[in-house]
Amino acid sequence: MNSPLPNRFRQRILARERLIGFWMCMSSHITAELVGLADFDWLLLDGEHSPNEVPMFLQQLQALQGSASAAVGRPSWNDPVEIKRLLDIGFYNLLIPFIESEEDARRAVAATRYPPQGMRGVAGAQRSNRYGTVPNYLQTINDNICVLLQIESRPGIEAVDEIASVEGVDGVFIGPSDLAAALGHLGNPGHPEVQEAIRHLYQRVTAQGKAVGILAPVHADARRYLDMGMHFVAVGTDLGVFKQATFALREAFPT
């Protein structure tokens, strides 16, 4: 296991580089190992809408150990206990869903920081500090955890300035599907009102010097968001790619 510090992915987020990512839904360490060979800039391991639990996340992180891709974990909720467990098994980058207020944002950041900056519980030896072998881990890790917060509701849109301004928030991720549902356009993130909300969020967050990201598995959408200036964009999902290839293969060889 290589030393995790400094966190190069966080440095790139803070520099607002263009980072191309891929969404991992299948909860498989074998799939993770394979996708890790493609050298995406980042891979999202999902715990909100996928059946991942901590041991499964751990297997996937181990499978990605030799990959150049940065692993980003998404807990099921803004829960400090769940966040603590993901940090301890070796996530240094977190995408925390359903942030609706400055208070939500501060609570999310605090869950990733040891006291006095936050409330993360202290374990002397865990995978994140290479089982106690990383020098000065406790003194440096607070500055090496990347916190990305997801906005996907009307209250989140209304509070975007306050959310993005919280110290320790490194970037904001837009959830297009939930945003569409919240705006009354369930299943239609391409609706003009949803697209206007996405542009608004992008403008407000970038005005504060923060990175903005989004999930866009449709190529035309991904290119549009990249042309807009989005910084970290997931351009596909393992489940989507597998499903598309499987059905295409079956259609190529009908009975």
Automatic annotation (TrEMBL):
Residues 20-243 form the HpcH/HpaI aldolase/citrate lyase domain. It catalyses: D-glyceraldehyde + pyruvate = 2-dehydro-3-deoxy-L-galactonate. SUPFAM superfamilies: Phosphoenolpyruvate/pyruvate domain (SSF51621). The keyword Cell membrane does not apply. Keywords: Lyase, Magnesium, Metal-binding. GO terms for biological process: glucarate catabolic process. It is an enzyme of class 4 (lyase). The keyword Iron does not apply. GO terms for cellular component: cytoplasm. GO terms for molecular function: 2-dehydro-3-deoxyglucarate aldolase activity; metal ion binding. InterPro entries: Aldolase/citrate-lyase_domain (IPR005000), GarL (IPR017648), HpcH-HpaI_aldolase (IPR050251), Pyrv/PenolPyrv_kinase-like_dom (IPR015813), Pyrv_kinase-like_dom_sf (IPR040442). Its EC number is 4.1.2.20. Pfam families: HpcH_HpaI (PF03328). This is 2-dehydro-3-deoxyglucarate aldolase.
